[in-house]
Design brief:
Layout (H helix, E strand, L loop, with lengths): L8 E4 L7 E6 L8 E9 L4 E6 L5 E7 L2 E5 L2 E5 L4 E4 L4 E6 L6 E8 L3
């Protein structure tokens, strides 16, 4: 499944990773406590480098492809239907294990109650 709505932003070597991530912002207007819903496509063989969730907790939902999320050093599958929780201060990396197809995923960010 792909969710490509609106004008995408393209980010190369995100957080020191490799390749390009295409991002569509799906949330329009206020939807408290949610601050962002992002549809992302990570190019084949690409990665998103290590970064800390320092502002909002989030979940990452796998839509299509074969990926891996590493949270605080623990590798987790990121494919269709996989959900990865990222509490505040967690360290995340993402990797597209496929060298042939993009990895599609959603990022949903929310304020702490």
């Amino acid at each position: 499944m792909r969710l490509e709505k609106g004008v995408p932003a393209r980010r190369a070597a995100l957080f020191g990773g490799t390749g390009e991530v295409t991002v569509w912002s799906l949330l329009t207007g206020s939807a408290e406590p949610f601050t962002a819903v992002l549809s992302c496509a990570l190019e084949p063989g690409g990665s998103v480098g290590a970064h800390v969730q320092d502002e909002f907790p989030e979940i990452v939902v796998g839509l299509d492809g074969d990926g891996e999320a590493t949270v605080d050093g623990a590798p987790l599958a990121l494919g269709p239907g996989d959900v990865v929780h990222l509490p505040l201060r967690a360290v995340l990396t993402l990797r597209n294990r496929s060298h042939e197809a993009p990895l599609y995923y959603l990022i949903i960010k929310a304020r702490q109650p």
